[in-house]
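User: Please predict the structure of the protein below. I'd like the answer in structure-token form so I can feed it into my own downstream comparison script.

Assistant: Understood. Taking the following sequence of 487 residues as input:
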Amino acid sequence: MKRWNGLLILLMAAVLLAMDLASAPVSVSPAADEKTLDEALKRLPAAERHYADGLKAYRAGDYESAAAAFGKSVRELPGHAYARYYLANILYIGGDYEGALAQMEEALVRLPFMEELNAYAFKKRSRTIDSYQHMLNAANENITNCRQSRELESMVGELTDKENRMALQAGAELVRRSRQKAHYHYFLGNILFQLKRFGEAEGRYLEAIELDPGHVNAYNNAAAVAFLAGKPLEALGLLEKAEAQGLEDNLNLKLRHLVSEALGRPTDGILQEDLSSTTEEDLGVRRFALAVKRENPLLPPLYENCYVVFSRSSRQAVLIDPGAEDPRIEDFVKAENLEVRAILITHSHTDHTGAAAAYAKMFRAPVCVPVRDAGDLGFAADKRLGDGESLPFDGFTVRVLHTPGHTPGSACFIVGSILFSGDTLFRNGIGSVQPARPDAAKTAQKEMVGLIKRRLLALADGTRVCPGHGRTSTIGEERANNPFLAK
């Protein structure tokens, strides 16, 4: 409680700071002249130091220190749009929506100036602005659709012609700028929504979609506003537009369920799905889409697929990737009179492991994890799984197939003619790679694609692909349609 009291004091100070900025030095307009840019460039190093301190504290969850540092950055350089953006985030988290609104509106106004200042710094052969590069690199931090990020990463590096490569890099930068501006509009929409200014919020969400047709959270929120306003058909149109953009894996499934229900349309397969008809006669499979909360309180839940695999004759079962506790899972296990014999984990990310310990205790079952990811769980695994290992249960057998790339130990599980692919292979997509060095991302992705082709596409075309997020597919469909595997 003391920490939050201190934070509220700092938040009030940040609002007062915003009121005093008109009298601060170097008050800049979006279109600054050379004299203004020169003066801003002199003050920039001090502002950047405070910004870096604020960013470090913000990422550590120390919002008090972050607010103080970002406030100093803005006092030093009022045009520092990125510091204002983070101040708005902190105010929003603290519940001061009016203060967040003031900072966010200023951030949008000042955004072109920061781009102009960076270009001017480059022209003067000065060191480019660290926060500008951070802004471009972080353009996808708040977007759940990792497919777009991978497409953007793939744009650069494939051409050998230097001029074409430079043009492609410039194009990628413009895309990132547009995405960043889109996110600023999206976040402003969230603030307006909290202030119950729903029409204005919807306008900001639509502006974000116009700037970045891949901003799935903007589609989700615009559809939610339409649904709450009693316009389910308009909400459905937005969700279907997002699907047409290839964003179906990251839609708000609970909203989609409610919209379909309101329109009297089928809801089967949205929040849960019976996949038994696609399997062998004795094998049952039930998919549950679980809403996993994020570490960042500003991000919406991420939907992750958890699977219950069981034998109809023996009633033995395994649970694959329980990312969050959900009463539907326990209810299903009880209703089907199942005996859960193991909790299987494809990789160590928390959206796939968040409820593993809870279900292990509930069902008195061991947690089984790929050997190279076992040390990253945050709790002790009961069994470490090796490549090619088979786990026999009464009525079915699980085969382990290591597919490192998304994490060092990522694995897929094969049960009969079903592939549980975790975050290695998706419908029309693949998992993101996280190499130790950013400059190695392209090579890492290429290695992962090669591994998928060798190990997964070697399976029969009719093999059902059950991924960690989104809809199911088949190996044949991915061989023919997955854009990441066509190269």
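That's the full token string. The chain has two domains: 2-217, 272-485.
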